[in-house]
Specification:
- By secondary structure, the chain is an alpha/beta fold.
- Helix 1 (about 10-30) packs across helix 2, helix 2 (about 45-55) runs antiparallel to helix 10 and helix 12 packs antiparallel against helix 13.
- The chain is built from 14 helices and eight strands.
- Strands 1, 2, 3, 4, 5, 6, 7 and 8 form an eight-stranded mixed β-sheet that branches.
- It has helices at about 10-30, 45-55, 60-65, 75-80, 95-100, 105-115, 120-130, 135-140, 140-145, 180-190, 245-265, 275-285, 295-310, 310-325, and strands at about 5-10, 40-45, 155-165, 170, 200, 205-210, 225-230, 270-275.
Length: about 325
């Protein structure tokens, strides 16, 4: 039996719309039901999408909810979320965040850099040292708290965050990881440094899992999977642009290539979906903006359909769909 994993990468509000568009096409055109995969790895925006899938939300309803279209008759989860007011977010401007003061590294971070340099990521460490943001991500995700169940969602849902004091990745939901309420794990995974306040869980504070990697796809390489479907809103070709957003896409794409190679070396086939120039144009440079989400959905529909129709990709998606029906 084919075992399938789903990777949902970071990307803010716009990235969630991209997830919804891609998954809706795969569900509608290929019969791939992302709710039935064996494992989900979610990072930042991907942790929200992954949690909603594990709560039983259909991909096509995710897309409909994003553009405020009618939902199917049985989707009470999204109806409850839609009824919860969500505070407006200020524009996301990375250059302004970079001008904010940074705190000194904690002794644990210095110790980790000296004793495990092969695991230390300087960029991740630097981002975790940024001054706390002014927005409260826990407040933004209040609806998830209301939907929370006593037990962690099943099948496996791994949510990636970064420990603020030493810059190491923490994967909530993975065996051996400290327990956390699902809404706080998701909030920690979404806590963009400098924009959102860090999230406290137990005695520790955490920031966005995208600080380590926008996808964290390589986590699946030792999980006994045969196939991974990867949706990476922050990757894709950046073209010749020289601004901070293009640099971020190039960095994300480089990490994703390394992770895909690691998966394939472990015998895990991969189907990767990243936004091309048309999707990037409507996604814009503010990942927290809700102004053009309908266009993001539309462009991701078109591009995903074309990409998934390629014979080698279609074969993988059909195998994933067949696995979910068994």
């Amino acid at each position: 039996m084919t075992r399938v994993g789903l990777v949902l990468g970071a990307g803010g509000v716009v990235g969630q719309a991209y997830h919804a568009g891609v998954l809706a096409v795969l569900e509608h055109d290929f019969g791939f039901d992302p709710r039935g995969v064996d494992m989900i790895v979610g990072t930042s925006a991907g942790s929200i999408t992954g949690t909603l899938l594990r709560l039983g939300v259909r991909a096509e309803d995710l897309a409909a909810w994003t553009v405020k279209a009618p939902l199917s008759g049985d989707d009470d989860v999204l109806r409850q979320i839609a009824a919860t007011p969500v505070p407006e977010l200020a524009p996301f401007r990375p250059l302004e965040l970079l001008r904010r003061p940074m705190r000194l590294p904690a002794p644990r971070m210095v110790h980790r850099a000296l004793t495990r340099p092969w695991r230390f990521r300087p960029l991740a460490a630097a981002m975790s040292l940024m001054a706390p943001g002014r927005h409260d991500i826990v407040e933004q995700l209040a609806a998830l708290r209301e939907l929370e169940r006593p037990q962690w969602p099943e099948p496996a849902l791994w949510i990636c965050a970064v420990h603020r004091h030493d810059g190491r990745r923490v994967v909530f939901g993975r065996p051996g990881t400290p327990p956390a309420p699902i809404h706080l794990a998701v909030a920690a995974s979404c806590a963009v440094p400098g924009y959102f306040a860090p999230v406290e869980i137990g005695a520790h504070t955490y920031v966005d899992g995208g600080v380590h990697s926008p996808t964290n796809a390589a986590l699946l390489r030792r999980c006994g999977l045969d196939l991974a479907v990867i949706v990476a809103p922050m990757s894709g070709p950046a073209g010749a642009r020289l601004n901070v957003y293009a640099a971020s896409r190039r960095h994300s794409a480089r990490l994703l290539r390394h992770e895909v190679r690691a998966l394939e070396a472990a015998g895990v086939r991969t189907a990767v979906f990243t936004p091309g120039p048309a999707e990037q144009e409507v996604m814009g440079d503010d990942m927290m903006s809700r102004h053009r989400l309908d266009e993001v959905i539309q462009q991701s529909f078109l591009a995903t359909g074309a990409h998934a129709a390629q014979p080698e990709v279609a074969e993988l998606i059909r195998a994933a769909a067949a696995a979910g029906r068994r």
